[in-house]
Structure formats: C-alpha cells, structure tokens
Design goal:
single chain, alpha/beta, Rossmann fold, six-stranded parallel beta sheet, 10 helices, about 15% strand
C-alpha cells in the first residue's frame, strides 16, 4: 500500500510519515500543494494523509490561508483515484466558542461562525470539499477534528503549546499560561493520531468525521500539565505573566464515535507521552525496548 503524507516534514507529519514509512509532499521536499503538477502525484497513491496547511490565524493574511488550506486541498481531491483513501487533518477549533457548552465535545457541536480565525474557518470549508469530492469521485474519506496533538521536537518545526512548554522548561524560559493555568485540554500523542489513521484505513467505513483527542482520561488543566512536564524532565518551571482566557475555556473531546466506529482509543497516557518530549525520556524508552 502506497501512502503519501502532505506536510510530511512538518511538526506532526515528520512522525506520521515515519510511522507509515510514507512519502512526503511538502515544500521542504521541493513540492507544493498549490502546484498542480506536484499534486498530480497523489493519483498514484492508495492513501493520502493531508496535513499540509497554513497555520496562520491572523485576519490580515486570510487570503493566503484560504488559498493554501482550501485550494491546496481541492488540488489533491481532484486527482484522487476511485477507492483510494483521503484523510484530512482538521481542528477542534471549527467549533469556536460553542465548544464551551459541552463537558465533552461531540461531533454534533455547532460550527456556526462565531469569530473563528481564517485558519479554523478554512479548515471547515475544506471539510465540505472533502465530503463533496469523495462522494463524486468515489474514494473513501476521513476528517479528524484534532485536539491538542503533541509530538517530540523535529528539526525546523514549531511545536504546539505542549511542545512549547517543554522547550521553555528545557531552556529555562518563562511559561505564560492562559487563564492562570485553569483551562483544561485533552492531550493526544502523535503516535495515537497515526494509529487512528491506520484504524480508518483498515476499516470498512466509506466516509467519516470524527473528533479526535486524548479524551477524558488524558484531560488536564494547563497548570497540571506544567507539573507533569516538570516531573518528566526533572526541570523546574518558571511562570511568566498570565495570558488572557482562551476560547473555548475548556475543551475535552468526546471520542465515543471514533471508539465505536473505528475501534480506536488512545494507547499513550500523558505521563508516558510527555516523557518523549525530552531527550532523556526518549533515550530511556529506547533502552527499554
């Protein structure tokens, strides 16, 4: 089975590509999802895991974000062959402030516009294109609305906030927590995301949209996350001035649909996963294997 990962040199893509021993379509590999000649290569693959995206949330750069995240996605969808598989990495933030209405956020949470940035809105628009083209061209499709996926550092990549906190600890820089550290997020290790991709590939589901995160068992406040990172690293955190409250304030994924339909659940608990963010933890785990 031939697998292509777009953005396969990025923060998550580096690890997903290694997990599947997949090929890379990214600017670092000399290819671009905005180049029609480059995206034509997707027609030769059984599975495309689409991670490449502009992560810019600024309204000033909205046109560039929509071009990359929507048109770039459509360029791939137009060449997918029948019965191939397209997996699209979307985001929990398509729900915006409506997620605060749920203790555990389901796929039925509203996605009406409520101030989402160009990044989140472009992801939601692209989801609809995935649905349209996969039905019209008769290939299988999966949308994962991701919640706080974290990964070990890789060269040239900017981490999410979990990796950022780890870097701050490692380098002795202050950590600034939103909402005085009270907001709650559920964490998902990148290897569990890869396993979810594999679960869809191995399933008989034709089309699915799933919220994907660590779920209640891997939910933690940001202040407790810092404490866990301290334990994992052996370093002492320095806290800086707090940041404003985030929107939504809390987010915990309802993973019941993906568990039921794909027979998937997170295998990496927070304590184990966070150790992989530090070189010492990674070396220790490698020695034990």
């Amino acid at each position: 089975m031939k697998i292509l990962v777009t953005g396969g040199s990025g923060y998550l893509g580096t690890h997903v590509r290694r997990f599947f021993d997949a090929d890379d379509l990214s600017r670092r590999s000399g290819l671009d999802i905005l180049n029609l000649l480059d995206t034509q290569m997707a027609a030769d693959y059984d599975v495309v895991i689409h991670l490449a995206a502009s992560m810019d949330k600024s309204h000033e750069n909205a046109e560039e974000v929509f071009l990359t995240n929507v048109e770039g996605t459509v360029n791939l969808l137009r060449v997918m062959k029948e019965d191939s598989i397209f997996i699209f990495a979307s985001t929990k933030d398509v729900y915006g402030r409506f997620a605060d209405n749920f203790r555990e956020v389901p796929e039925t949470c509203p996605t009406l516009y409520a101030g989402q940035s160009p990044l989140e809105w472009s992801k939601l628009v692209a989801e609809h294109y995935v649905d349209y083209y996969s039905h019209q061209r008769r290939f299988r499709s999966c949308v994962f609305r991701l919640s706080t996926v974290y990964a070990p550092a890789s060269e040239g990549n900017t981490p999410g906030f979990v990796g950022h906190y780890a870097d701050c600890l490692d380098q002795g820089r202050p950590i600034r927590l939103p909402g005085d550290g009270r907001p709650v997020r559920d964490l998902l290790h990148v290897d569990d995301f890869s396993r979810a991709c594999k679960a869809f590939i191995d399933s008989v589901i034709r089309h699915g949209t799933y919220n994907l995160g660590g779920g209640p068992k891997n939910a933690t406040s940001l202040s407790n996350l810092v404490e866990m990172l301290e334990t994992a690293s052996g370093f002492q955190a320095v806290l800086g001035a707090p940041l404003p409250d985030p929107v939504p304030f809390n987010y915990v994924t309802d993973i019941s649909r993906v568990m039921q339909e794909l027979d998937w659940s997170p295998e990496t608990d927070n304590e184990t996963g966070l150790r992989t963010l530090f070189a010492l933890g990674s070396e220790s785990e490698a020695a034990e294997q």
